[in-house]
Structure formats: structure tokens, C-alpha cells
TrEMBL record, chains A, B:
Coiled coil: none
Iron-sulfur as UniProt keyword: no
SUPFAM superfamilies documented for this protein: Class II aaRS and biotin synthetases
Functional note: Required for the first step of histidine biosynthesis. May allow the feedback regulation of ATP phosphoribosyltransferase activity by histidine.
Protein name as it appears in the record: ATP phosphoribosyltransferase regulatory subunit
Gene: hisZ
Gene Ontology biological process terms from the UniProt entry: histidyl-tRNA aminoacylation; L-histidine biosynthetic process
Lineage, top ranks: Bacteria, Pseudomonadati, Pseudomonadota, Alphaproteobacteria, Rhodospirillales
Matches recorded under Pfam families: tRNA-synt_His
InterPro entries named among the record's database cross-references: aa-tRNA-synth_II, aa-tRNA-synth_II/BPL/LPL, HisRS-like_core, HisRS/HisZ, HisZ
The keyword Transferase is assigned to this record: yes
Ranges of residues in domain Aminoacyl-transfer RNA synthetases class-II family profile: 25-289
Subunit: Heteromultimer composed of HisG and HisZ subunits. Homodimer.
Highest rank taxon of the organism: Bacteria
Family as reported in the entry's similarity comment: Belongs to the class-II aminoacyl-tRNA synthetase family. HisZ subfamily.
UniProt organism field: Thalassospira tepidiphila MCCC 1A03514
Length: 388, 388
């Protein structure tokens, strides 16, 4: 490894974001946040680290194994670096905003850090934009969050977005209802994750017929809904499935331009969801661009809530690069007042600098301008194209 | 401590940023970043953590004691959480952007984490906005960074900004030139930090006369400059002082509306500066709102560079709160298409939600709207003031 390569080396899954991309990320993030704000979601900002105890309270066990720990020398207590912001927003709702009227609509953006990347998401630091709708358990709330995500993605012009509606709690409900043993649950869950109909059929018990039917019903909402409506499920599971159908029909009725699929037994990646959930995709973007669903804010005994997170890196991959801005080269001797006036008018300027650019003639300044990435130059009190 | 207080407790110096403030911070941050972008400073984003070795390479020893460490289970090497972003930007300039044309102008924003807060700055996490001008060692470059900071602060309307120009390396230059012993340096440095003229005079040696003269010259640029110009300093020190005078005169000539003071022997808080430096203040804001100065990007053998950081928390304290936005309450039954249209037109909406708001009459909806912080309501296809 050369000295340069050694200095440039970052830990796996961490990266420097370079000119162009960093500005684009910030622009898209703020557009998404603006869309959430216009729908009444108030921005909050959570700390990068907090006490392990509060950070992980009520969180899924997986979150704990994904969280870096730090010792706080002030309090001599363990802190964790945030690996997800939803539990932090839930904590804010349950403490500082406990007296704010419900429904409480909150939004956030920020970077999270994880101990290990996944196969599909090798990044260990990534930027999220998210929203939480806290205090309401209705299908209308489930629907609002799905539509909120779609409207935000529409505001940035991300093409060909699709939503996959899921019900990650349904298999467990069915196992409970049919009295499936612990060993059988493991076998069936694995088969569901592999979408292995043959393995499901090979397993014993009444539940397998229902699971196969749910798996086979999965697909575009228009074809899945009639199949799901015909299924007869035990009490509990049946209510949950009807909630899913209700939300799907509400999303379809909203007239938003996104493909809707339903996959009721998809469980992968849902860590704390307790009801209707969803995964967002965009054509030509590998993996998901966001996900969301119903949960309890602040852990199992917390308030009813639903929310969603969007993944900035995936979203940026689905968007065209930003159009490069026009840059105006300011030759040596350009008065500061004129430079400021140009910027105030909206120009992007690149000033020649004594000690760096020593271009004395206009021809030399034009060459220097090109080298500095400018396509305009300020000459004789005018902004003129470089190639004019 | 109640259960609520226990859950809300954050480590000292860390905080939740609540609705209103969080949006305001983001708005001001992006305005500052836009001002830097318009002056040709390209945004980069640095990772939250990186290998300790590269994070602290060439950095001041104080930075090391302020940096939280984490073990990376992937590489089994130590990582540090960023406590300052300038060295990271220097690393990017020296590696990934080593072939980009100079001067290299980079900007960044982000949160840093420190092990211990200071008396004046008890926060341990704080948001910075900054810029680095890399590859040029001239007085013009020193001046550009000062003016860049002032123009950015002007763009957000921060009132009564002042700049204190400093030369934190000057005392050491003088100690070297006058052959001051190690013990005497300590005594003199302490006296300078306390601005204790009597203690300086009491100390022995030729250097004390110069130090007292420098201390007594400190003040508004208009009165300080003539005094400083009269001083005769040994070679090396004299050149540095003339650089300071040169930069001060350039800043004055720029016509920017900020008070300029000069304090050539102020050393406190400059950790890696190697030349002309500055501190930014705003009337009515306790402590500094930013600082900057000349340094070597990537450590002692690195490129000539100068840069500055602005502290978001201090800046926000100097600004009036954001004007609250108009919020339009959307009663139950408002079609999604109409809601989206209102938001696309720029309205901030708060939708009634089945399962939460069950207001059936217009009178009830108006009461509900008020409770949700709205000052408008959408009725009969019109946005009308609530109190009409």
C-alpha cells in the first residue's frame, strides 16, 4: 500500500462524500424534509450518542448488537452511538413532548452508525430521512405514512417508485392460532424467508395451507387483493389481514402514482414492527430505498405509532446527477464589492487569488478560469461565457 | 428522579433539539452553506468515525484527548469519533483530491463530538459549518477566509458581527528570537493569557517590553494598526506581524460591515494555527461564534491552508426565532388530491386523522384545528383564517 492509499483508507462501510455528491445529498435531503414539513411533520434532531440504557430501551435485540458503545468519562456510564433514530424520536415523544397534542408528527434527518453492514447494505454509516406519526393506531394513520413517503419521493422526482405492503407479524399470529410448536415455527419461518412453497407443503399441520395461500397471493395489489379477501384466517390473524387490505385500498384510492404490491408474509428486515409495514423500491435501484410500519414508540408498552425511514444513499443512486452550476471566474483585481454583488445576484464565483493565480492578461485569465472549472468569466463589469 | 426524568436524561453536554429549533438550525445551516457554495467552496461530507491513525495524523495533541475511541470489530483497529472536521477535510485534500487544481476550496457541515465540554462551551456535541482554502499561503488567502465568514454571517442577517484578528504563533516566535528559556516561556505565556501587564513587566528579559507593547496595542483596528506599525520586532516575528497588518488592511478595504479588532498575542483556543488567525463574535452572544486561521492541511508537512468554522449553536442564539409558519387544518374527509395540491402550492397542512380527530361539525373541527397549532382551516375548497 502506498503512503497515499494508507492515508486515504477508511474503515469498511465508511466513506468520504466528495464535491458534487455531498451537495446533491444535502439538496435532496432538505427537499425531502421540506415535503415532510409541509405535511405537518415537525423536525427534531437527536444526539449522536446517548446513554445505552435509554438508547436501547424497548428496542429490538438486533439493534443492541448493531450499536457501538462508548464510555462516558463524565458520568462513568456506557453510551451508545445511534444506529437508528426511530427509538430516539420515540423517547423524545415519551418525555420532552409527552404533553404535546396527539397525533404527534415528527420528522428527522441524520447519519446513523452500525457495527456491521449487511450483504445488501454494506455501508456502516448512512444518512436517513424519516417521519414518525405517534399516538394513533388507525388504518388512516398507516395510510398517511405510506402516502407521506410517496409524496416526499415524488417531490424529488424519483422515478418508478413502488411500495410493497407487508404484515411481518402475521406468521407469528398464525403460528399462535394454530398452536405450532417452537421447532416447527423455525422450519416454517425459514421456508417463508426462502419463499419455498414445496418446503411449506412438506411441513405438517393446518397452518401450512394458509401460509402457502398467503405466499401465492403475493403480487400486484390488483390481483392480490381479491385472493386475500377470500382467505379465511383464525381470529386475530384475520383482523390483521383485513387491516392490511384496508390500507392497500386506501393507498390505491389516493391516486398517487406508484405501483403497489402486497406481500403479507415478508418478514425480513422488520425489527420492531407490530402491524402493517411497507418497503419502498425504485426501478433501477438495487435493494430498498426506505421502509416503515407500525410499532410502539418507546418500546412494547409505549404509544401506538407508525413511521418510515428513507435511505439517502439508495435514493441518490436512483436520481440523475445534479446539473453542474455555472461558475464565474473573477480575475485578479476584481473589487470585493463587485464579487459580493455577483454572488448576491445568484452567481457562483471562483476568485483568482494572489499567490496562486498570477494571470496578468485576459488570455491567461481565461485559461486559468477553465482550469478552475469555470464556464464564465467576469470581464469589463460583465459576466461572459468563457467560450465566447 | 421520576421515571419520566430518568428516560429523558441525556449525558452532560448532549441534547435533543426540539420542533422549531431543529428546523431553524437546518435552515440557517443550509443558508450558510449556500453562501460558501456561491463563493466557490465545494461541499464535502466526512465520516462520523475513521481510523484513529488517520483522524489524528498531524493533529494537535489536544484533539487526541478530546476524541472518543471505538474498536472496529471488522478490522480490529481503533477508530475515533470526529471531534473536529478540519483535519478530515485536510485528509481528503491530501488523498482523494490530491490532483484537483489549487487553490482547493472546500466546505462542510456536520456535528462533532468531544469528550469534555469547556467552561465557555459546555456542549459536547455541536454542529459546525466550515470552509477550507487549501494550497495558497498568501495574505490574499488569509483575507478571503475572513471575508467569506463575514459574508456568510451577513447572508443570515446576524447583527453586529465583529472579527478579532490574532497571531497565536507570535509569542513563540518572539521567545525564539530573544532566546527565552523554557521556564520563562511558561511564566510569560501564562501572563499573556491573563493579559497581566504587571506580571509581564515583572519578568526579566528584553522580550517583555515587546510583549507589553503588543498587549497594549490590542484594540480596534483603527487605533491598533498605527501602534503595531511602529513596533520593531526581530526578523521572523516582524514578517509575521506585517502579514497581520496586511490582512487587517485588506479586510478594512473590503468595505464589509463588521467591526475589526486586532489582538496579536491572543493564543487561547488556537490548536493548530500556524499564522494569521481570527475569532468571530456577535454582540449579545456569549463567547465566540466561530474561528479560523492558517494551518498546514494534513499536519506539519502538509499543504499551506487557511480555514474557518462557525458554531451553529452560538449563531442561533444571536438570531431571532423563526417566524411561525401558517398551518392549514384539513378536516376529516378532505380528499388526498386536494391536500397534495395545497402542499404543492406551498401550504403547511395538518390533516385530521380517523382514529384521532373525530370532529364531525365545522365548529368542532375549528376547535381541533386550534389544538393542533393551526391558524387556518380548509373549508369549502378554501383556505380560511381560523379566527374569521
Amino acid at each position: 500500500m502506498t503512503e497515499l492509499a494508507r492515508k486515504a483508507l477508511l474503515p469498511a462501510g465508511l466513506q468520504d462524500v466528495l464535491p458534487g455528491t455531498a451537495a446533491r445529498e444535502a439538496e435532496i435531503r432538505e427537499k425531502l424534509m421540506a415535503s415532510l414539513a409541509h405535511a405537518g411533520y415537525d423536525r427534531v434532531k437527536t444526539p449522536l450518542v446517548e446513554f445505552e440504557e435509554s438508547l436501547l430501551e424497548g428496542a429490538a435485540p438486533e439493534l443492541s448488537t448493531q450499536t457501538f458503545r462508548l464510555m462516558d468519562p463524565e458520568s462513568r456510564r456506557m453510551m451508545g452511538v445511534r444506529s437508528d433514530m426511530t427509538p430516539q424520536v420515540g423517547r423524545i415523544a415519551a418525555t420532552r413532548l409527552v404533553d404535546a397534542p396527539r397525533p404527534l408528527r415528527l420528522s428527522y434527518s441524520g447519519d446513523v452508525l452500525r457495527i456491521k453492514g449487511s450483504h445488501l447494505r454494506p455501508e456502516r454509516q448512512f444518512a436517513q430521512v424519516g417521519a414518525e406519526l405517534i399516538g394513533v393506531s388507525s388504518a388512516a394513520a398507516d395510510t398517511e405514512i405510506v402516502l407521506l413517503a410517496l409524496e416526499a419521493l415524488e417531490s424529488i422526482g424519483l422515478p418508478d417508485v413502488s411500495v410493497d405492503l407487508n404484515l411481518p407479524t402475521l406468521p407469528v399470529r398464525l403460528f399462535d392460532a394454530f398452536g405450532v410448536s417452537r421447532d416447527d415455527r423455525e422450519v416454517l419461518t425459514e421456508a417463508l424467508e426462502r419463499r419455498d412453497v414445496a418446503a411449506l407443503r412438506a411441513a405438517d399441520g393446518k397452518v401450512t395451507g394458509v401460509l402457502v395461500a398467503l405466499l401465492e397471493a403475493a403480487g400486484p395489489a390488483q390481483s392480490a387483493l381479491p385472493k386475500l379477501k377470500k382467505l379465511e384466517l383464525p381470529l386475530g390473524a384475520s383482523e390483521e389481514l383485513y387491516r392490511l387490505i384496508d390500507v392497500a385500498e386506501r393507498v390505491l384510492a389516493s391516486g398517487l402514482d406508484a405501483a403497489l404490491t402486497i406481500d403479507p408474509v415478508e418478514m425480513a428486515g422488520f425489527r420492531y414492527q407490530t402491524g402493517v409495514s411497507f418497503t419502498l423500491f425504485a426501478r433501477n435501484v438495487r435493494g430498498e430505498i426506505g421502509r416503515g410500519g407500525r410499532y410502539r414508540a418507546g418500546g412494547a408498552s409505549g404509544e401506538a405509532a407508525t413511521g418510515m425511514s428513507l435511505y439517502m444513499d439508495s435514493i441518490l443512486r436512483g436520481l440523475p446527477d445534479a446539473e453542474p452550476v455555472d461558475r464565474v471566474y473573477l480575475p485578479l483585481g476584481t473589487p470585493q464589492r463587485e464579487a459580493r454583488k455577483l454572488r448576491a445576484e445568484g452567481h457562483y464565483t471562483v476568485a483568482a487569488l494572489e499567490g496562486a493565480a498570477e494571470a496578468k492578461t485576459e488570455a491567461a485569465a481565461r485559461i486559468e478560469a477553465q482550469g478552475m472549472g469555470c464556464n464564465h468569466i467576469y470581464i469589463g463589469g460583465q459576466v461572459v461565457p468563457l467560450n465566447a
